Amino acid sequence: MLITFTSKAASEVLMYKEHAKRILELLHKDVDQGVITAAEAPHALQVLEQEIAESRQHAVSEDVERDVHAHHNEDGDDANHEEIQAVSFSTRAYPLVEMLRAAKAGGHDVVWGV
């Protein structure tokens, strides 16, 4: 399922619910619907930027490694599967972070599920 983030400050941001859930949980927001007000934007940005910095310090999680091994043979290559390319937290969060920066600068809210 997709979540659409909207703000008068930027274009819509679409995100899979499972990916948005982690971001919104960090911000203590409901995944189904909510608002990040212009006043909350600076704190939200601080939280997300801290999480992005922290996630860049950690190697690929064991879950991703286990998934790679489950889909590839022991030599690491399998002609039937494409090479796994993990998408980092910072890459997934980037569009929403940019929206929050624009919302903060313009004094606008970010809403979803309404």
Detail the topology: elements first, then pairings:
Blueprint: E1 2-7, E2 10-16, H1 17-26, E3 34-36, H2 41-56, H3 62-71, H4 89-106, E4 110-112
Antiparallel strand pairs: 1-2, 1-4, 3-4
Helix pairs in contact: 2-4
Q: Give the C-alpha Rg.
A: 17 Å
The shape, in one word, is: elongated
* Helical/strand content category: alpha+beta
* Strand numbers in spatial order across the main sheet: 2-1-4-3
Report the biggest beta sheet as strand number plus sense, adding barrel if it closes.
4 strands, antiparallel
Secondary-structure element pattern, one letter each: EEHEHHHE
* β-strand number: 4
Give the end-to-end Cα distance, rounded to a whole number of Å: 15 Å
Mean pLDDT: 86
- List low-pLDDT spans: none
Helix content: 40-55%
- Kindly report the oligomeric state of this protein: single chain
DSSP strand (E) fraction?
15-25%
What's the helix count? 4
